[in-house]
Design goal:
The protein is an alpha/beta fold. It has three domains: 10-79, Immunoglobulin-like, CATH 2.60.40; 114-209 and 276-312 and 320-478, TIM Barrel (Alpha-Beta Barrel); 486-587, Immunoglobulin-like (Sandwich). Helices cover 21% and strands 24% of the residues. The chain contains 13 helices and 29 strands. The strands form seven sheets. Strands 10-11-14-17-18-19-20-21 form an eight-stranded parallel β-barrel, surrounded by four helices. A six-stranded antiparallel sheet has the order 22-23-24-29-26-27. Strands 3, 4, 7, 8 and 9 form a five-stranded antiparallel sheet that branches. The mean pLDDT is 95.
Length: 590
């Protein structure tokens, strides 16, 4: 079989028709049936390398089609085009001919430097639902973009939006990776969403899933061939093909690699996306989802991951490529010439658990600051922004768990303690090294667990408007909007105070250092008010308070401390009051 890159796969429109090309190496024959073939299917021509093609006159945008594949034993299979840019419906739908007529106007969105990115994880189906019975769409999500811009968000990470089994869900059961789910608004819906984001200075990252393809789909035994009762040409046909969610693609087969790499190119080119998050790379590169486990490694997948970042950065040099890997290995973000995968960043999966341990809200974990210190001090390859940090994600707020504020006081996710701890966690996230990411609704105390049916309760933006304001203030400081917290975008972090008896930690962030740059963060993870609390600061003199999580402007029932500065003596010693579950962010004037 040919290993060269094949051109014009799927459908290529011409001025008076279309060219169709599909990969079905074990088929006896392949035909096209569609709204443009009223009498009988049109037989395709074998190109003698596993591909079949045909030019059809008179094909128009909006028409439907399917492939009719005759297997070696004479069975006829009706299959959608694996590269269809649209499917009429995710279950038993038809492939749709699409055009490239979207008006991007003068979309000249510039990439946002990693140290300035503020990510908001968004699930289109639940983010802004018209009512409890109607799923959200790209159009309904657009209605809230001004809110996100005003909050300070400049990157939205969309959970997967490709056509998915049963039409909506989390998005991690993809069945047509080239088609955008029609219930969410389809191809043009996503394009319009990206365009509207760009007009507001917001970039868009898309979550993509290549660790498995959902089992019960057209890709499965696509042309009738398979071995060991497994998935056929798109999949490994031995134990490497098994994952907990569906069949694992055959990363060693040139045509499957091109199928995935062309998909990367499509998202960045056709949809003007600003980044991709690749789901569960650990399950791509190891059959058991383990690191340092050569027995179960899939070397082909490691090479594919390197190809994914290479292609993406070539197509769109400013795009951010994020891996969800679980292994915390620096090789995911190491450059190619150091045998790394060259991702720009990876999800820091231990971060939300470290916060829960320190706040004493882990189900079995112990109350400890060790994890927070570990997360503050650890960076990959000397770059503070090669990790994405978060207090909650769709994963930590689900899968048998709940949102952080819900875990604090179950059934009362807006309690005083829940607000204090949630705000503390997010204040640490926005000041820690890394690219901060919020889970939709965290900034207004959305309750419960993350799921794919419960809409966000937007009335909470009024009820907890002070907490929303606190997030705006944190983001402003993170981005140095007032010119006095430059260190929060710097590379340097040092923990200068750790008190395991009182659960207090202090850390120092800086870029070049000095006045208006050095930032210190002091956090009381305990439920105790600490009077005359003594600690040593990194430098003597007056440190001005830039953020006080106990301010009653954020919540009237907070136990506010009324300090506006902390003064360290000549030996850098200072004495302060620390209310329960409090965070101070400070810097020096001169």
């Amino acid at each position: 079989m040919s290993h060269q890159v094949k051109k014009n796969l799927g459908v290529t429109l011409h001025h008076d028709g279309a060219e169709f090309r599909v990969w079905a190496p074990f088929a006896k024959s392949v035909a096209i049936t569609g709204t443009f073939t009223p009498d009988e299917p049109l037989q395709m021509n074998s190109e003698n390398d596993g591909y079949w093609s045909l030019i059809v006159d008179g094909v128009e945008v909006g028409q439907n089609y399917k492939y009719q594949i005759e297997t070696q034993d004479g069975t006829l299979l009706e299959k959608n085009d694996p590269r269809a840019r649209a499917i009429t419906s995710s279950d038993n739908g038809f492939s749709v001919i699409v055009g490239n007529d979207f008006d991007w106007s003068d979309d000249t969105f510039s990439p946002i430097p990693h140290e300035r990115q503020i990510i908001y994880e968004l699930h289109v189906g639940t983010f802004n639902r018209p009512d409890a019975a109607t799923p959200g769409t790209f159009d309904s999500a657009i209605e809230k973009l001004d809110y996100l811009r005003d909050l300070g968000v400049n990157m939205i990470e969309l959970m997967p939006v490709t056509s998915m089994a049963y039409s909506y869900g989390w998005g991690y059961a993809p069945n047509y990776i080239y088609s955008v789910e029609s219930m969410l608004g389809g191809r043009h819906g996503l394009m319009k969403f990206v365009k509207e984001c760009h007009m507001r200075g917001i970039g868009v990252i898309l979550d993509v899933v290549y660790n498995h393809f959902f089992g019960d789909t057209d890709l499965w035994q696509f042309d009738g061939w398979s071995e060991n009762g497994r998935g056929g040409i798109y999949f490994y046909n031995d134990e490497r093909g098994d994952t907990p969610w569906g069949g694992r693609p055959d990363y060693g087969r040139a045509e499957v690699r091109q199928f995935i790499l062309d998909n990367i190119t499509m998202w960045l080119n056709e949809y003007h996306l600003d980044g991709l998050r690749v789901d569960s790379t650990i399950y791509m590169r190891n059959t058991e989802g383990h690191d340092n486990d050569p027995e179960h490694d899939i070397p082909d997948a490691w090479n594919l991951l390197r190809d994914i970042t290479t292609v993406a950065h070539k197509v769109s040099p400013g795009a951010i490529l994020i891996a969800e890997d679980c292994a915390n290995t620096a090789y995911i973000t190491k450059p190619l010439n150091e045998t790394g995968c060259a991702f720009d960043a990876q999800w820091e999966l231990g971060f939300p658990h470290a916060l829960r341990d320190a706040l004493g809200i882990n189900y079995e974990g112990q109350h400890t600051l060790a994890g927070v210190r570990y997360e503050l001090e650890r960076i990959y390859n000397g770059d503070a922004f090669e990790k994405v940090v978060f207090s909650d994600s769709h994963d930590t707020a689900a899968n048998g768990s709940v949102r952080l504020n819900e875990a604090v006081t179950p059934e009362n996710a807006g309690s005083l303690a829940a607000r204090q701890k949630a705000l503390l966690a997010d204040a640490v996230m926005f000041t820690a090294p890394g690219i901060p990411m919020m889970l939709q609704g965290a900034e207004f105390m959305q309750e419960g667990a993350f799921n794919d049916w419960q809409e966000l309760d937007w009335s909470k933006t009024e009820k907890y408007s002070g907490i929303v304001t606190a997030h705006q203030h944190l983001i402003d400081l993170r981005l140095n909007k007032h010119g006095n917290t430059a260190g929060l975008m710097g590379q340097n972090t040092a923990v200068f105070h750790q008190d395991d008896n009182n659960f207090v930690i202090g850390f120092h962030r800086w870029d070049k250092g000095g006045a208006l740059d050095d930032v210190i963060v002091i956090v009381n993870f305990s439920d105790t008010e600490l009077h005359n609390y003594q600690l040593r600061l990194p430098r003597s003199g007056a440190w001005q308070l830039r953020f006080n999580s106990t301010w009653q402007g954020y919540s009237r029932d907070f136990h506010e401390s009324t300090i506006d500065a902390i003064v360290a003596d000549e030996e850098n010693g200072a004495t302060i009051v620390l209310p329960p579950y409090s965070v101070y962010i400070l810097s020096q004037e001169s």
